[in-house]
Structure formats: C-alpha cells, structure tokens
C-alpha cells in the first residue's frame, strides 16, 4: 500500500467514514474511494455492493482487474434507556459484532451492576453526544418511553443520518412523538425513517425476544441501507 493511500485511510478511520482501497492489477495503480464519492461505469455497482456488505472482493470488468479492500467503521448501537430490553440488547449486540453503549440520566437504572462491561453514560443525551457524536454507522434505539429523554436523540439521529432509528412505544405513543418532532421541522418523509413499533414483527412478547427483534431489524437496516 502506498503511503498516500495509508494516510487517506487513516484519516477516514478517524472520522468514521467508510473507504475502499481500489487496486488495479493491470495498471498497478491504487486509489482510495470514500463512501459518497461519485462513480460511473460497471465498477460503480461493485463498489456500492462492497460498501453495503462490508466484504472485500476481486473484480474482473471491462475497466480492468483488481481488488476492492473494504474498510468500514465498526457499527455501533446507541441505546437510550437502561431498561430490561437494553440489558439483553447489549449482550446480543456484542455477539453480533456491534459496539453498544447505554445512555440514561436516571442513575438508578444506569448502573454497572445491571450493565457489566457496557459503556454507560448518566449524562443527558445532548451532553453525551457532545463527547461521542452519532454518525452514519450508528444505530439509535430509544427505549425509555419518556419524551424528555427520547425525543432529542431521535431528532439528532434524523439530522445525522443514522443507518437505523427505532423507538419503543405503542402506535398511539408514536403518533404523539411524530407530532412533537414535526413541530421541530421534520417532514413526514424524514420521520418515516423511525422504526416504530420497534423491531422485526416476530411476535416478540418479552424483553429478550424484543431485543432479538430489534437487533434483527438493525442488521437488516445496516445491510440494506441507502448509500449517500
């Protein structure tokens, strides 16, 4: 790998931007493609597939032969609410390769005893995001049922373009939530990005099953997301 390519990859990694090292075997050249760069031609579809799947691959196209080496930021889940569902979700997320953190200003819930080994913040979400912002490779899962805690993270996730945004609550609760967020200027199309009721429809009936349904929907969204 050339020094210039390594420097660009390191810069993208620090900013949590997905990148691909495109190596051409015929011309013996390489370049870095960042997620969101405009590309044309047959190789563009391969690059888009690689960004979406996260899998490196060889290619043999009219534009040449080579390799696509994919470097994706580690996907994360920001869980708002140190509730029972969150306890199961942090465990499952780790098994599936996600970095999970829990944010809840209610110190009676957000304890290391209830979430051993899990990064916890008892700050209000606005303050927690100043230290560790959301990004396009973060899923936002709001579980508190409390608008004072959930609404701001949901709004921030919409502005950031988190690959998954989900919120716990009944359809009535979500309708009220949508009304509040609409007053902040979000369009119906933007608000449709919020998954509610949260999780895949698998008939989940207890916290562990709901956590499975949420993680399934998070994975589905990560692998089918729209690229910028």
TrEMBL record:
XdhC Rossmann domain location, by residue?
Answer: 78-218
Cross-referenced InterPro entries:
MoCofactor_Util/Proc, XdhC_Rossmann_dom
Query: What protein is this chain from?
Result: Xanthine dehydrogenase accessory factor
